[in-house]
Amino acid sequence: MNITKNVVAYFVVGSLTLTSCQTANPYTGESQQAKATTGAIFGGLFGAGIGALSGGSNAERKQRALLGAGVGALAGAGIGAYMDKQESELRRELEGAGVGISRNGNQITLVMPGDITFSTGSSGIVGQFYPTLASVAKVLNKYNRTMVAITGHTDNVGARDYNYRLSEARANSVAQFLQTQAVASQRFQVSGRGMDQPIANNNTAAGRQANRRVSIQLAPLN
Fold it and tell me: For the chain, what is the domain count?
């Protein structure tokens, strides 16, 4: 598939699918069935960043930057096998680390709960979580033919503007740490969604805790 013409269509089509995916229990590492809607995730996260690949001089510059960063394109049946291996290594590296792992087609999502990643109201990563992120970076560097969307989310407590800024700052903190581990910044699309994309009911303490998170979505560049 041609990067500069078809990668946007790839993500848009993939984002409209409602499907069953495998999710790892964040505390035991065991997989379980879960339902996930990918439209809000990949449509919004990759839209702005990948849009630069749709044509013209900007697309050419972006393609050169990706190639310069060592991000090569994948093609054909090799894509699935590549993502299979990447998923397997992520599950092994992150077992018991508190990070949820799900797979939807050729897209892999990591969910990092806010309560183990950041102090309350802070965008600074807690020191105990550094080894976990270092393990993520290790796999990302080995499987470098993927785009990486990092997104911060909050619950609905507090002002919308504050939550948006906090979610964005937390996503940037994760991206910056990964860069210190030699993950190429050209692969990143970083954003904050504040309270706008909850995955649980904000009317309960457990739901609010689930909504406070940073997600990393990986998709092949093909």
Answer: 1
For residues 205 and 72, give the distance between their C-alpha atoms in angstroms, rounded to a whole number.
43
| Cα–Cα distance for residue pair 213/174, rounded to 1 Å | 11
Whether pLDDT at 126 is above 60: yes
Q: How confident is the model at residue 13 (pLDDT cuts 50, 70, 90)?
A: very low
Q: What are phi and psi of 88, to 5 degrees?
A: -60, -45
Contact between residue 194 and residue 171 where contact means Cβ atoms under 8 Å apart: no
The pLDDT confidence band at residue 78, using thresholds 50, 70 and 90, is: confident
Print the domain residue range for 141: 3-220
Radius of gyration of the chain (CA): 17
**Residue 145: CATH number of its domain:** 3.30.1330.60
What is the pLDDT at residue 32? 42
Strands 146-153 and 188-192: parallel
**Which residue, 85, 80, 81, is CA-closest to 105?**
80
| Positive/negative CA dihedral, 10, 184, 94, 189 | negative
